[in-house]
Each structure stands twice: as structure tokens, then as C-alpha cells.
Amino acid sequence: MSSADLAKLVFVSAIWGSAFVFLRVAVPEMGLWLTSILRASLASVALVAFTILTGLPMQWRRNFKYFAIVGFFANVVPFVAFSFAALHIPAAHSAVLNSTVPLFGALLSVVVLSERLTMRLLIGLLLGIVGVAILVGAGGLPLNASILMAVAACLLGAIAVALASIIVKKTGNGGGIHPIVMAAGSLTLGSAAMLPALPFSLPAAMPSAPAWACTVAVALGSTGLAQAMFISLILKIGATRAMSATFLLPLFSMLWGVLFLHEGVGASTLVGGMVVLAAMGLVLAGPRPRPVVSEAKT
């Protein structure tokens, strides 16, 4: 991987992690659904406007199916799944479960993209999950029905994100859909799918200026810009490597929490951070996974 791609991967993780700071301010006043709808809608408007200004063809009729599929799996399912989980389990546990995205992505890449799952890659993915678990200090939870349903919801969200990444990789290479076009189209249809919930999610009082500002920031930066850059990484370095950005996301969210929310840092943060960095090294080092090629019959 080039230094430019690595820098882009770290930057995507950083702006994704900043979303937690913005959401801590926005969600209590805007509400969960309104924040999610505005987040996707504002991001889609900005990206569609960018495609118009730069002359990138959206080709809605040709790409509608791909926009709808990616929008559903990359936006609607994760938003709903992790929102449900937030009602029953701590955010730390959701972060650990979210870190399974690269693992599901690697497995799906083997099935859908015929990529080789090397031992180095598998060890790196599993080590990354362990590192995130240490990082957020995940502990035991009572195993009741609501907890198990929340865990299942998080895993469903992780699988959806992984599947969306695989679809982007497949359509981007064969279908030739530009990363910004894919991000704009999928966010547009994803936000449209959530619009029916808007009348039931309006806040009782007008949100404050900081809440609006944070909503705009998370929409344009942590959603629009991040998704466009993430899709370009998928097409360039592969889905599995790009999805390893989720390992660094909890680390950056804690960093921004320390800097802007004055949250404390324990020993688990330092140890987990080192384990995560080691896992990133295993996942990103070495040759890019190649498709499995069947031997020609003679």
C-alpha cells in the first residue's frame, strides 16, 4: 500500500471517529431519526451538487439498482441496527461488534470476489477485533433476550456494511461507477428510504445552533466526504483492506473525546491502541489479495 493510500485510510478513520463528538451534541436535541435523515440527506445533496459542478454523470437509470442496493445496506440497515442496539447495550460493546466488519468483509470477499484469505490476513483481522475489545474495555453483559437481540442487530449492521463494500468493489470495477457518483446515489436513495419516519421524529422544541452545526458537520464531513473517500479506497486497495479502517475508528473517537469532551483515558486505551496498530500492520502489509484462479484443463 502506498503512503498516500495509508494516509487516506487514517484520515477516513479520523473523520468517522469525529462523528461521535458531533452526534453527542446533535442527537439529544435533534433526535436519533431526524439526525440520521438529515445526515444522509445533506450529504447526498452536497455530493450530487458536486457531481453536477464537476460534470460527473450520475446515470440514474443505469445505476439505480446499484444505488438502491448500496444505499440500503450501507445506510439504512446500519442506521436502524445500531440505533436499536444503542437502546440495550453500551456504545463500547457496539464498537466492538462494529469491528467485525473487516472479518465479514474478508469472508464475503472469498465467496463473492474469489479473493484468497491468507493466514496473515485472518490473524490480523482477529487481532484487530481483540484490540478494539481491549480498547473500549468491553466486559460481560447479562445474556437476556434484549441483549442477544441487540448483539444480533449489531452483527447484522456489520454484515450489511461489509456486503455493501463488496458490492461497491464489484460494481466499481466491472460497472465503472465513479466513487463519488456511487456515494451520491446511494446516500440519496438511502435517505429517501428513511423519509417516511420524518413526521414521527420531529423534536418538540427548535434545536440550538450548535446542534444544527454539528448535524451539518457530521453530514458533510463524517458522512459525505468519508463515504466518497472510503469507496475510492475500496476500489484501489480492495474491500478487506479498506474496511480495516473500522479498527481505528474507536481509537479516534476516544481521542476526540479526550480533546473535546474531556473524557478520561485508561490503561485499556493504550494497550488496545497498540494491539489495533499491530493488527493494522498485519492486514495492510504484504501483497494485495489476488483472485483465486482455477488451473486450466489440458
From TrEMBL:
UniProt KW keywords: Membrane, Transmembrane, Transmembrane helix
One cellular-component annotation, GO: membrane
Membrane topology reported for the UniProt record: Multi-pass membrane protein
Main location: membrane
Domain EamA positions: 10-136, 149-284
Transmembrane segments: 7-27, 33-54, 66-89, 95-114, 121-141, 147-168, 180-198, 210-235, 242-261, 267-285
Superkingdom of origin: Bacteria
SUPFAM superfamilies: Multidrug resistance efflux transporter EmrE
InterPro entries xref list: AA-Vitamin_Transporters, EamA_dom, EmrE-like
Locations listed in the record: Membrane
PANTHER family cross-referenced by the UniProt entry: AMINO-ACID METABOLITE EFFLUX PUMP-RELATED (PTHR32322:SF9), INNER MEMBRANE TRANSPORTER (PTHR32322)
Protein name, entry field: DMT family transporter
